[in-house]
């Protein structure tokens, strides 16, 4: 029994270390970004070097209700979201960065319409 516990503990430690590591493709996009979303207000996007992201979507009645966060998978100029709380499957976006401007374009369907409408567009570094 202790052999299995030791193996499980070692596997958990490896997964934790991997999760804490940076994704080299995320580095150029890491930071805090913002953009105006229609008349509802300003959305914020935080991308961490680990690939973790947070999107704060303006929601006047309950600000906490507009928070999406989780892992993103970066590969070159593409980011993929998998299994977020509002959809199943994958959603892919292309990223283009020019100095303090980040342009995000959907590369296909996204089962999370709110994420798609918020992410797609021009973001300015905060």
Structural account:
- It is a single chain.
- This protein has 126 residues and is α+β, with helices and mostly antiparallel strands.
- It has one domain: Lipocalin.
- It is built from 2 helices and 9 strands, in the order αββββββββαβ.
- It has helices at residues 2-20, 113-119, and strands at residues 31-37, 41-47, 52-56, 67-71, 73-75, 78-82, 90-98, 101-106, 121-125.
- Strands 4-3-2-1-9-8-7-6-5 form a 9-stranded antiparallel sheet, with helices on one face.
- It is globular.
- It starts with a helix and ends with a strand.
- Mean pLDDT is 81; it is low at 14-18.
The geometry reads as globular
> Helical proportion?
10-25%
Compressed to H and E, one letter per element, the order equals HEEEEEEEEHE
Proportion of residues in β-strands = 35-45%
Q: Give the overall average pLDDT.
A: 81
* Highest CATH level, the class: Mainly Beta
What name does the CATH topology carry?
Lipocalin
- Could you name the ranges where pLDDT drops below 50 across 5 or more consecutive residues? 14-18
* Helix/sheet category: alpha+beta
Task: Give the spatial strand order of the biggest sheet.
Answer: 4-3-2-1-9-8-7-6-5
Distance between the termini: 52 Å
Question: From the coordinates shown, what is the CATH architecture?
Answer: Beta Barrel
How many structural units, i.e. domains?
1
Number of extended strands: 9
Largest sheet: 9 strands, antiparallel
As a whole number of angstroms, the C-alpha radius of gyration is 17 Å
